[in-house]
Hints:
Helices cover 44% and strands 16% of the residues. By secondary structure, the protein is of the alpha/beta class.
Amino acid sequence: MAVDTIFARASGAGKAGVAVYRLSGPDAHKIFNKLVGKRINNREAAYVAVRDPGDGSVIDRGQIIDKGLAILFEGPKSFTGEDVAELSLHGARAVEEALYDALTRLGARPAEAGEFTLRALKNGKLDLAQVEALADLIDSETTLQRKQALGQLDGRLSEVAEGWRKEILSVLAPLEADIDFPDEGDVPAAVAARAGPAIAALKTSLTTFLNQSISARKIREGVSIAIIGPPNAGKSSLINALAGSDVAIVSDIAGTTRDIVETRLDLGVVATIADTAGLRGMASDAIEEEGVKRARAKAKEADIRVLVIDGSETVSCETLLSGLTENVPRETLDLLQPGDIIVWNKSDRVSGGLSLDTKHSPYTELAISAKTGAGMAALLHALTDKAAEGAKTDGPALTRARHIAAVEEALAALTRAEAKIASAPELAAEDARLAARALGKITGAVGVEDVLGEIFSSFCIGK
């Protein structure tokens, strides 16, 4: 089947000082030569004038579209594994339209979303785990996300997954021996002695790696923080102060916040902070009641909860947690977990400020004023510490649900194989093969077509 030559803008959309346009496919260099009217050396940047090749009329022929830098990459030593040409021109709409028109008339077609990367995958320049890492790198918002994605793109996870697969294949050798020589009485015992410990060790390795995946997924997906508390405690003022903008409506009227308002912050780890409806014993209407219901659900699923209390009431934490405070229902307190944060807001209304006794509290307690900013630095520091707990970038990791499912599938198959080694080595061998196949899904060694649609749906045009 003939392969088309494709093109797209590889840099961000919109007006820009410089935009990068990429051309890839069997005719990429031929089309490029027609645009610039000369050949340039492979992998050497050259200043060129890009001309419209014309459609036969004297007026159009040779008209300059733009001038800029160009570089050629000969396949297979290119990103896609094909011949590639890249043009750095001015990021103007008129330039882009004229260039696209010329490229189309020369036989190229616009690339689909993620098509350059898909070709890199099919041509063996990247495996499936590296493709996912590239998508994560493009979407990275924090330093930790960037570092983790770069490590995966370098092939760290791919190397580990392939190492596991090779270990399983080495286990298959003695199992196959028992199948090939069933009449030799000492073979089953020897097989069990060799393959059994190897499978047990591999299961331990996979289980350890699986347990460590929580940290890696926290870096990639971020953490969720729910701001909860009674009406008029200052929850909306707090989220506005954290976000540095008015993302939530602030009012002295109880029940103003009816639905969940979210904003994202870089706390080392990406954090989604949700302002929720005020939690009180009796809602004023059905809409507020639904808001309270959603607030409780958001608090239960969040990684961190921040309970905001009106500190101007000077209620002690001991009184609060004993349930003796009228405006903080017991159901609200029951949402808290050890390590969560209690914020005593409106400290500016207390003469001399708030003094907290936190020696015996299972929570982090802070006195702040969302209005004046007092104590906000300490709150941000506490949130950053809690968001980063367990977040590490040391070594490869299972960053996606697909990776975890593959390892769990392999573990289940190895457990079955372990139980059948002595009695049914042929069945144990089949389960070992299934385990190897499951791990092959991580890099796309097997089953690649099943997940391409899901993975490439997140890619942009030009990548």
